[in-house]
Specification:
Layout lengths: L1 H14 L13 H4 L7 H21 L6 E3 L3 H15 L7 E3 L14 E4 L1 H16 L12 E4 L7
Parallel strand pairs: 1-2
Antiparallel strand pairs: 3-4
Helix pairs in contact: 3-4
């Protein structure tokens, strides 16, 4: 799912004639894959270090983006909390956004992308049944999503 979201991000930039700046790609998927090899305690420490890695890359940018788009709301919340724990606040000229519209995310005031969880679950079951029955899945399945615009209160 994250790769499809990333591809959608790239497509949106291209369709709107916005240049892709490699320095704005703050995450590192090769580095993040290490997360799944960690114990629960190690995962917490890893997330702190990984968010510090992203924040440090962001801080080194001379031309900083106005928005950091995370693959999901959990990643966005973790990044926001890490900014706050290091600096007391998220930079006032930065918005951190996720992709899920999880119920608890409303507390952050962060914008997100809402996906139809019921439709997503239905498609997942249909695909699982096709796989069980050895039916080849050849079509890309798209599920509508919509932006949820919220603005964080400035502290």
């Amino acid at each position: 799912p994250e790769q499809n979201r990333f591809n959608g991000y790239i497509t949106a930039l291209l369709e709107n004639n916005i240049p892709l700046k490699g320095e704005y790609l703050l995450g590192n998927s090769d580095l993040f894959r290490q997360y799944y090899k960690k114990t629960s305690k190690q995962r917490l420490d890893f997330l702190i270090d990984y968010n510090d890695y992203i924040i440090d890359k962001y801080l080194k940018l001379t031309d900083k983006p106005e928005v950091i788009c995370c693959a999901n709301d959990n990643d966005a919340l973790n990044l926001m909390y890490r900014f706050k724990s290091r600096f007391g606040e998220i930079p006032k000229d930065l918005i951190v956004t996720g992709f899920d519209n999880l119920d608890f995310d409303i507390l952050s005031g962060s914008p997100t992308i809402e996906q139809d969880s019921f439709a997503l679950g239905k498609v997942a079951i249909e695909v699982a049944l096709q796989l069980i029955n050895n039916i080849r899945i050849s079509n890309l399945i798209e599920i509508d999503a919509k932006p949820i615009l919220r603005y964080p209160a400035q502290s």
